Amino acid sequence: MLGLQFETETSWAEIAKDNLQQILTDHAFLEQKAASNAVSIIINYSEETELVKEMSNIAIEEMQHFKMVHLLMVKRGMVLGREQKNDYAVRLQKFFPKTKDRTDALIQRLLVAALIEARSCERFKVFSENMEDEELSKFYNNLMISEANHYTTFLQFARKYQDREIVDKKWNNLLVFEAEMMRERGKLAKIHG
């Protein structure tokens, strides 16, 4: 369903489980960044009413997810750590050449956001299915569904604003790039690590 061309090994889930505070801190900040990205799209494309409505919903939902992760951490006696760079997102954003064309720039943002949501969804699935902790397993299974919905929303909007054939070619090229990048990963207690 997600179209990802590289599957996360279950060994990553073991690394994440052994570094729970680190993975939860990373996850919390990713939710903030996702909310910030949706708000940024609203600011930059405010004339696109349907897009603004949907990005508003996503921004609110992502901040709710941040709050949920943070409350889970507090409940377990953890403190939210410091935010760390997300080199995964940075590398994806550099895949597309810079453009001054507003539509192309929007498509690129939407495709990168779709891929980040798709990979998060896949990682949450791997984590939830390899977790003895029932509370965390259920928590990540529920979030997985939300990430899948966000993925389809971003991809649908990309296909709305540009010819589907062009968008799908960009999407497939991005998927190939991301799969190669993911082959080097899976060693860190980070959602995209």
TrEMBL record:
Question: Alphabetically, which GO biological process terms does the record hold?
Answer: tRNA modification
- Cross-referenced Pfam families, in alphabetical order? MiaE
GO MF annotation: an example: tRNA 2-(methylsulfanyl)-N(6)-isopentenyladenosine(37) hydroxylase activity
Task: Name it.
Answer: tRNA 2-methylthio-N6-isopentenyl adenosine(37) hydroxylase MiaE
- The organism is Polaribacter aquimarinus
